[in-house]
Amino acid sequence: MPKPLMDTYSPPNLNFERGEGAYLIEQSGETYLDFISGIAVNAIGHNHPEAVAALKEQADKLWHTSNMFRVPGQLELAGKYCRDSFADRVFFTNSGVEAIEASIKTARHYHFSKGRPDKYRIITFTGAFHGRSYGAINAGGNPKYLEGFGPKMEGFDQVEFGDHDALRASITEETAAILIEPVQGEGGVRALPSSCLRGLREICNAHELLLIYDEVQCGAGRTGRIWAHDWAEEARPDIMAVAKGVGGGFPMGACLATDEASAHMVIGTHGSTFGGNPLAMAVGNVVYDKLTAPGFMDQVVNISDTLRRSLADLRDVYTGKIEEIRGRGLLIGLKLKDGFGNRTLVNKVRDNHLLVGVAGDNVVRLAPPLIINEGHAREAVTALDRALDALQPEQV
């Protein structure tokens, strides 16, 4: 039988037909606790009644006009983003990688418009993941993702994650910006200390660089603050890319920027046919209202603390298998010790009806819906306990 799909994914033999809150239900009727939530996407859980109602209501009225015409929902949601962030302006996209591309273009055009077209280079870091477009894989610099796609793109200087001396040495007269994830996702769920974020802000100020945050995965309340960098005072960016959780499962993203950084992004400099369409804006407004409701972020912090304490206890039991617990909020990484495979553990966890993911550096990634409770946390830890107990060293 011919296979019509490209072989770019290798999903398990499961066919989920519906979701409810923190659970996915397979065609067989079996239920799985979803602790990866579409890779940190389903922030308010599956089948949220208010998000569903907003989508249905909008679908009955208008799906698409393009950005040739005003979309009232864009003005409403952009106003909320600017109200609750550093930003003055927003450009809506369909995805995180498009938000990254818009961020890179905004940073380069800023210097171009100031008479410095030579300032175009962007500093990035090992372990980074900024998406799968050609520009984004070059920004990320992962050799595995670059292989087979032609010569490396000019304009990105990658330095070792956490190497402050290398960072300073990489800055030249051609450097335009620094691009970084406050919490790396794909690279191993590594959280950048607040002191480092403040240090990056100081470096950018000293060298007239723009600071770009990639909060595609770690934003939208995932760390217990609406934006991950909010944990660090005096570390505000000039530009930020967001996506994933902001749509709660509906494809959408955004590039946020200050007036200064985006002043020269005028008619003709950038565009999107589908970005900010009425359907996305209807859902995006509901999701954001839920994330910013009084007490919601406090609950994210509380449940993440509870889950982390339980995972720390699990680490104490399996000291020969778990090296450390990483991340921030409900973006959590279990780094396994050498000899134990993260993909093997993910499969064993799934056998116990818990869904988790992998990340770089031999890490198992947990990114559950932000609406989980203590019962969900206990259920997840029990499944992890059983899977870890059955985990054996990999055959070399």
What does this structure look like?
With 396 residues, the protein is an alpha/beta fold. The protein has 2 domains: 128 residues, Aspartate Aminotransferase, domain 1; 241 residues, Type I PLP-dependent aspartate aminotransferase-like (Major domain) (Aspartate Aminotransferase, domain 2), CATH 3.40.640.10. The strands form 3 sheets. Strands 4-10-9-8-7-5-6 form a 7-stranded mixed sheet, with helices on both faces.
Which structural class is indicated by helix and strand composition? alpha/beta
Q: Report the CATH architecture of the largest domain.
A: 3-Layer(aba) Sandwich
Number of domains: 2
Estimated share of beta-strand residues? 15-25%
Task: Give the strand line-up of the largest sheet.
Answer: 4-10-9-8-7-5-6
Tally of separate helices: 13
Q: Using only CA atoms, what is the Rg? A: 21 Å
Biggest sheet architecture:
7 strands, mixed
Distance between the termini: 35 Å
Mean pLDDT: 96
- Low-confidence sequence ranges: none
| CATH class bucket of the largest domain | Alpha Beta
Question: Might you state the CATH topology name of the largest domain?
Answer: Aspartate Aminotransferase, domain 2
Q: In total, how many beta strands?
A: 15
Provide the helix percentage: 25-40%
The CATH superfamily of the largest domain is known as Type I PLP-dependent aspartate aminotransferase-like (Major domain)
The H-and-E topology, N to C, reads as EEEHHHEHEHHEHEHEEEHHHEEHEEEH
